[in-house]
């Protein structure tokens, strides 16, 4: 078994592959206690150990739709006291139990954002409104934008100044998931492509609103949209993990080289990090219909919770 040796410039991503704060905080904290976690490469299946000792890590970037278990376990204060520098990618899309059936109510997630701001400051939080989805629900056209302005105004009041978004990308596993849902008696959902012109107008409206609130809008992996239209005011290419921003926040020397393992051809600007999640070992039980990762509903014959 190989070991991923990390230096104090290493950024830990926890995680693009699952929701560790919501579902696997005990696993994470056990790894912190042991000083390392086991990670299986999703492509070659080679297991490796990642060094998580505070002296080996510059910062940890958490991705979640529900920080309640993380906060309740006081993982945030324990990690801070141990010397870890924490950053948060918090996805808040609104109230939509069809697309995101297993996440808390919007007010609860807003309270979580307030708690994170109080403990770490709003500059340590990226608000992700992701993905922008257009779909048909039993033949009725819908989209996920109805709560966007409400969320934006509430987060602006907390001082959060960065919003990251992208449009839904089709995946075969999503189509299979939707077929199983319909066959089980659930709604008949079909994601639709609104077209380039609609995408442009949506981004223009979002950017204009956010500009009045002091929030910058970043597009994640949307190079086609940048290439198809003239520049839109208050819209930037996104680095969801941004070593330069982490350096401004925390000092030190985090890696700032571009992450070649991400979707560079789609416009990803992320810098290098080490992801400690696993699609197979850590399925996400939010069961979001549009998710590219492995969800609980994709593993019906396995144990549903960690």
In brief, what are we looking at here?
This protein has about 300 residues and is α/β, with parallel strands linked by helices. Helix content is about 30%, strand content about 20%.
Q: What amount of the residues lies in strands?
A: 15-25%
Structural category: alpha/beta
The number of distinct structural domains comes to: 1
- How many strand segments? 14
* Count of alpha and pi helical runs: 10
Alpha-carbon distance between the termini? Answer: 24 Å
Biggest beta sheet attributes: 8 strands, parallel
Form type: globular
What number is the mean pLDDT? Answer: 94
The whole-angstrom Rg is: 19 Å
Helix content, binned percent: 25-40%
Q: Topology as H/E string?
A: EEHHEEEHHEHEEEHEHEHEHEHE
Give the strand order, joined by hyphens, for the main sheet. 13-12-10-7-6-5-2-14
Unreliable stretches (pLDDT < 50, length at least 5) are none
Task: Explain what the structure shows.
By secondary structure, the chain is an alpha/beta fold. It has one domain. Helices cover 31% and strands 21% of the residues. The chain is built from ten helices and 14 strands. It has helices at 20-23, 25-34, 68-72, 75-81, 106-120, 148-158, 172-183, 196-212, 223-228, 243-250, and strands spanning 2-4, 11-14, 36-40, 47-51, 59-64, 86-91, 125-132, 134-137, 140-143, 162-167, 189-192, 216-219, 235-237, 274-275. It has an eight-stranded parallel sheet, sandwiched between helices. A three-stranded mixed sheet has the order 1-4-3. Strand 12, helix 9 and strand 13 (235-237) form a beta-alpha-beta unit. Helix 5 runs parallel beside helix 6. It is globular, with a radius of gyration of 19 Å. The model has no long low-confidence stretch (mean pLDDT 94).
């Amino acid at each position: 078994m190989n070991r991923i040796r990390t230096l104090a410039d290493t950024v830990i991503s926890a995680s693009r592959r699952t929701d560790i704060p919501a579902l696997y905080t005990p696993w994470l904290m056990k790894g912190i206690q042991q000083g390392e976690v086991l990670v299986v490469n999703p492509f070659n299946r080679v297991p490796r150990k990642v060094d998580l000792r505070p002296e080996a890590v510059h910062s940890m970037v958490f991705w979640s739709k529900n920080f309640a278990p993380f906060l309740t376990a006081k993982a945030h204060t324990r990690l801070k006291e141990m010397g870890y520098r924490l950053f948060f990618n918090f996805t808040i899309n609104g109230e939509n139990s069809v697309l995101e059936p297993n996440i808390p109510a919007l007010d609860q997630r807003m309270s979580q954002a307030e708690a994170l701001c109080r403990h770490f400051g709003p500059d340590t939080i990226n608000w992700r409104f992701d993905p922008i989805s257009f779909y048909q629900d039993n033949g009725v056209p819908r989209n996920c934008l109805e709560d966007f302005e409400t969320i934006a105004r509430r987060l602006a009041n907390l001082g959060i100044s960065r919003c990251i978004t992208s449009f839904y990308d089709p995946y075969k596993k999503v189509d299979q998931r939707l077929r199983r849902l319909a066959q089980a008696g659930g709604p008949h959902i079909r994601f639709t492509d609104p077209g380039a012109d609609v995408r442009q107008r949506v981004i223009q409206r979002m950017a204009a609103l956010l500009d009045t609130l002091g929030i910058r809008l970043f597009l994640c992996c949307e190079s086609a949209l940048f290439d198809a239209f003239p520049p839109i005011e208050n819209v930037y290419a996104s680095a969801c993990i941004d070593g330069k921003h982490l350096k401004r926040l925390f000092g030190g020397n985090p890696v700032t080289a571009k992450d070649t393992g991400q979707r560079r051809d789609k416009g990803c600007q992320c810098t290098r990090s080490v992801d400690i999640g696993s699609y197979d070992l850590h399925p996400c039980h939010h069961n979001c219909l549009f998710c590219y990762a492995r969800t609980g509903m994709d593993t019906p014959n396995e144990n549903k919770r960690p």
